[in-house]
Amino acid sequence: MHHPATPSPALAAPGAPTALAHAPDAGAGQAASRRLKAVRDSGLLDSPAEPGFDNLTATAARLLGAAACFISIVDEQRDFYKSQYGFPEPLATAREMAGATFCHFTLDRDDVLAIGDTHSDPKWRAVPTVDSLGVRAYAGVPLRWAGQNIGSFCVIDTVPRAWTPDELETIRQLAASAARELDLRAAVAEAREAAAMARAQALSRESVLAVVAHDLRTPLQVLQLSATRLQRGRDPQDSAVLQRMLSAVGIMTAMVEGLLKPSQSPSTVQAIAVAQLSADAVHMMAPLAEKCSTMLSLGDLPDAVVRVDYGQMVRVLGNLIGNSLKYSPEGSCVRLSGAWAGAPGAQWVELTVADNGVGMTPEEVAQAFDPGWQSERARARNDGVGLGLAIVKSLVESNGGRVRMESRPGDGTSVTIALPCA
Q: Which pLDDT value is given to residue 19?
């Protein structure tokens, strides 16, 4: 072992690099492709030197009294040196070397490759850097990124040496520090990319909603005026239908106005009786229930008042009733009921939409409120994009409430929203 006070002989300046022939291995083709993709995705090739990595290579060389230490990133044609300490010119400036090197032998390993004397084995003696750099001892640890060995953390010397367990552990730990730095960079880059994508999606969604909501205003006004005119000269038998139309148009208009509000503007919060809120939602969804040949009923409700955004809560209950109608068989019943959350007069009221439809597995229930998630049945129906329950959860929580789901395959589903009392 070399003591740090006794520096190793200087490396020889490299001549023209010579490629080392390798027999082709057809079975390794896919693995090589995955590794090379990770090399490119890492963004390390041809990147500038950085103090964080340079400190690690300098520390390793000094602690071990070695001629040089470096971090190599290996693609299909060359070694690129992300960091190096102790290289001669012009290699120190070029920071790359073509052809085969000892680093190639670490790419299919899980642990350190330690060579005490490169002249002791014809395989090691044939590596070009034995002559071009005068390498007589080598120790390298594979450097992993995205589950692939993309290069190595290496220490080389110009004289033979017996690597001790402590020296090899030092190399492992410094290599682990370099790998942690790479993992941190990957996490930061992924977070930035996800944040940028989320911002772009949010802007796109808001833009689309604004256009759609704006264009809906005119047909809604036409519907409202037409229904009002019909109501003036109505046939008594059409009274309920016309009133239902006007109620639905009013609710839709409130939704449209809500979509057109800037995201930072406050919600239109008002105190409203739970019975009125529930009746309006059932009244709005009654035509769809009739079309589905499903009974839609209003159960017991507490004598309570909640302070919520009326349009948003009607939208929530409409979404829940609509979901139940979609997955309930003809002749079945969907029921909206309510209760105090705790003793009567408590601070919370619960509203539950329950059906006796197909139900869901525990795994499906756990994902049901995730944006974009759909069960296999929903995908087979091809009648949605998996946003309904995510919207329900978002709107309920924005009104200070909470939501939960209970379901079993074949026994139906119930979704409960809890709202704070006024």
A: 38
Asked whether the beta carbons of 377 and 329 are under 8 A apart, the reply is no
Q: If you average pLDDT over each of 82-86, 219-223, 383-387, which comes out highest?
A: 82-86
263: left (phi over 0), alpha (psi -120 to 50) or beta: alpha
Percent composition of the chain: helix, strand, coil (DSSP 3-state, to 5): 50, 20, 30
Packing angle, helices 51-64 and 165-232, rounded to 10: 160
58 with 51: CB under 8 angstroms?
no
What is the per-residue pLDDT for 256? 67
Examine the pLDDT at 6 and tell me if it is beyond 70.
no
Alpha carbon distance 391, 371 (integer Å): 8
Secondary structure, 3-state, 46-103: CCCCCHHHHHHHHHHHHHHCCCEEEEEEECCCEEEEEEEECCCCCHHHHCEEECCCHH
Q: Position 74: which residue type?
A: V
- How far apart CA 378 and CA 390 sit, in angstroms, is 15
Asked if the peptide bond before residue 90 counts as cis, ω within 30 degrees of 0, the response is yes
- Please tell me the pTM assigned to this model: 0.49
Q: What mean pLDDT comes out for the span 5-28?
A: 53
**What token pair was written down for 284?**
């709005």
**Neighbouring C-beta atoms of residue 353, cutoff 10 Å:** 29
Please count the CA atoms within 13 angstroms of the CA of 115 that sit on its side-chain side: 26
Q: Average pLDDT of 371-381?
A: 76
CA-to-CA distance for 104 and 81, rounded, in angstroms?
13
Q: In whole numbers, what is the pLDDT of the chain averaged over residues?
A: 84
* Lowest-pLDDT range of 93-107, 203-217, 225-239, 363-377: 203-217
CA nearest to 413, candidates 348, 362, 349, 341: 362
